[in-house]
Design brief:
Layout lengths: L16 H15 L5 H13 L1 H21 L5 H20 L1
Helix pairs in contact: 1-2, 1-3, 2-3
Length: 97
């Protein structure tokens, strides 16, 4: 690999793609407050220094808040009835196959 930065992970250097991938996997847990204090601190430091990951974090946070807001609304009764009828049809088809 012809990396002009070498493999030195000193401060001030851009995070590597694999480091970003590791942090992006943790973002979901970070958003749900499911990380321990040390991991939370590490993710926060990474987000403070890596703009592409921060943008992905902001997007995830926005989507999560929209979904949470949408899930608090009840579906109309006629839609619920149609969905339940279709679920029962699929269950019958699965049992018969």
């Amino acid at each position: 690999m012809n990396d002009h930065h070498g493999h030195d992970h000193s401060h001030g250097q851009e995070p590597t793609a694999s480091e970003c991938a590791d942090f992006l996997e943790q973002i979901v847990y970070f958003l749900d407050n499911e990380l321990d204090t040390a991991d939370c601190a590490a993710v926060q430091v990474h987000l403070d220094t890596c703009n592409p990951c921060l943008e992905k974090y902001d997007l995830q946070r926005t989507v999560k808040s929209i979904v949470a807001r949408s899930c608090s609304e009840a579906a109309p009764d006629d839609l619920r009835a149609r969905v339940m009828m279709r679920v029962r049809q699929v269950q019958i088809e699965i049992r018969e196959s």
